[in-house]
Input
Amino acid sequence: PDRASARALGALTPASITHSTFLSDSLARDCAESGQIVMFSPGADITEACGPAMRSIVDHGGAIALTSGYDARNARGYSMQIAIARAVALGRLSVEEAITAATVNSAYAVGQGSQTGTIQAGKRADISVLAIPDYRELPRQFGINQVRQVLRQGQVVFNRGRWRIGAHAEDHRDGGMRTEPLRRARSQAS
Output
């Protein structure tokens, strides 16, 4: 079966391949040697185990991409933070490899690598700003939505950065979250 898969990869030359994390080492090597980006969805179903394919393809010199794998019927996971955390913890990737797979490699896997995927002049600025002190904390902050701000094509489309969580006694009255404009309005009314 692995040789047939290798022949199919050579004949079809797809832009990317979506696959389970359970591949034999020889098929992982064939995928790596094909030059195609292999996409994995380690966050798609939190109850499933991850196999060694991510690490094996990278070790064989191949490129992988991460996706949340969201599909309303088959895979309800849609958190890239969880996908990255699972790729590090279960797929045995380094944090840097997982972030690269989730950004630039994913952009190339869907044919958008020349327009997005890296912070670079001339590319669309699709950026998520996270509320973590160091990128290596991303997989350690499992289960917490760390997204502070989102820019889509250079425009802020989500901004949680102006919120404060329960730092002062007066904030606790309102469930711990206050926006700056509301605080200013309250102080001006006093």
Summary: The longest strand covers residues 147-152.
